[in-house]
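Before going further, learn to read the protein records used in this course. The integers have meaning only within a learned vocabulary of local backbone shapes. The record below shows the convention in full.
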Amino acid sequence: MTHFDTKFKRFDLDKMDFNIPTINLNGLKVVLDQDVVEKIAEVSVKTVDTVSKRPDFKLALDKITLSKIDILYDNKDSKLNSGISLGNLNLVVNEINLNEQFLDFNTFEVKNFKGNLRLGAKDKQIQAPDLDSTAIKQAGWKVKLKEINLENIAFKFDDEQSKPKTKGIDYAHLDLDKFNFKAEKLYYGNDTISGNIKTLNVNEKSGLQIQSFKTDFFYGPKNASLENLYLKTPQTLVQDKVKAQYTSLESLQKDFGNLALDANLKQSRIGFKDILLFVPDLQNTNPFKSNPHAILYVDSRVSGKVKDLNISKFEMSGIGATKVSLSGKIAGLPDAQKAYYDLDIKKASTTSKDINMFVPPGTIPKNIQLPSQLSLQGKFKGSVQNFKTNMALTSSFGNAKVDALFDQRVKKEKNTMRKFTCWILI
């Protein structure tokens, strides 16, 4: 240890009243083995247990500064070294109230941190006495943080008992590098999380590269939102906002139709490569199987409840040659078969190759040949089983105008197409 100093305004063990304005520690190097860590854990649990039974306990801290800290942990059985190396840590405290389970911090800053945690097959779990939770309020902790700044963070985690994955993010073998994070007005409660993320970027050995992430986020018992959203990777750009309202989180499982949405994905793109990092199993299904490096372009504005959705704008392209541009309303979701569609299809173009990629095998009979290219424009009103449409069709087979009324509910008629008018223009 190179330097350590602190100041006390009050240190009253009888009244359990402590006021420590500053703690400054510079240049600490220490090696801990499992026996020492278990002893520290035991003392910590007993201390918390003692404090929880003293409603008069008071602790006032102001500023904590740590620098040049190196801590190595060596499990005596597997000899897998783990540890941390810390350049600088600064914490400025507004209030600590353990009895009310409330923490209020002004600033938290960490710079130049490296961590390594390896768990071997022979590692023994650290033993510590259980905490007497009956003496602790169960209302839940509340934490406020005015400003946080994390710079140049690197962390490795390896569970030697887990076989490494070859694709996607391997949560048992993480390797984070160049992690930087700045945020303001962070709040955490038992049912609410909120804050303003100003900067987040990180690299991970799987190939994940978040170049920039910014948003004002809120998650609560009745609504959640990502506003002023900006997420950028080499393949993906998602921006603007997504808001959701619900009666309760439990209600979403029983009544998803009453989920209210307000989403605006403005000139966004989503890389399939990024999606497959988080859900690698999708690589075996289309459209991911045929387009693993595709970039989906989306420009969309959607609002209303799921059961009564208003689509002001929806434009999509990037999967094969398929492009869609439409607006309208959909009532009755999430049951797509019974929903009522009122759509203005400005343009929908695709190819036979894309259609065969999207639909399940066997859906299209082998005796039906699709045009290699086709494009639709017009109106569609009704459900899947009962609709009216007026479309202009352009295809490699020729052009046509279709004015049709289809009602599958009419069971007495062998031909359920009640009205069908088609002009073919070659």
